[in-house]
Each structure stands twice: as C-alpha cells, then as structure tokens.
Input
Amino acid sequence: MIFCAGILKRLGAKRIRLLSNNPEKVRQLENSGVRVVELVPCQPRISKTSRAYLKTKKSKMGHLLKGV
Output
C-alpha cells in the first residue's frame, strides 16, 4: 500500500475517496500521508460459492461486508 500512496502523492492526490471494504487500506494510506475522506464500500454479489470466502475476509481481515 505504501507504493500506492507514493503514486497518489506524485499525482498530487492528498485527499481521496477510497472504493474498498478493507479498513486496513485506509490505515495504511493515512499512515503514508494520504487522507481518506470517504470510504465507499463495494458490495459483492454473495453466492453459494463466494459466501465462505467472504465470511473469511470479514472475520479474519475485518472487511466491511453486509449480509455475510
């Protein structure tokens, strides 16, 4: 994520809206000097196949997912 922050800074982006479900990305970007002014969640389609995977992302990595 530090690499991404470097690119954003080079492009002159000091404040961003982040499209993500991962609060860790917010923390890393802000620790690198890029202010996240809004976290825009991207809600994936939940299917029989993806439910277990999404539950793992939510429970182990803290992803912000509704309906999982």
The mean pLDDT is 92. DSSP finds three helices and two strands in the chain. The two ends are 26 Å apart (CA to CA). Strands lie at 15-19, 35-40.
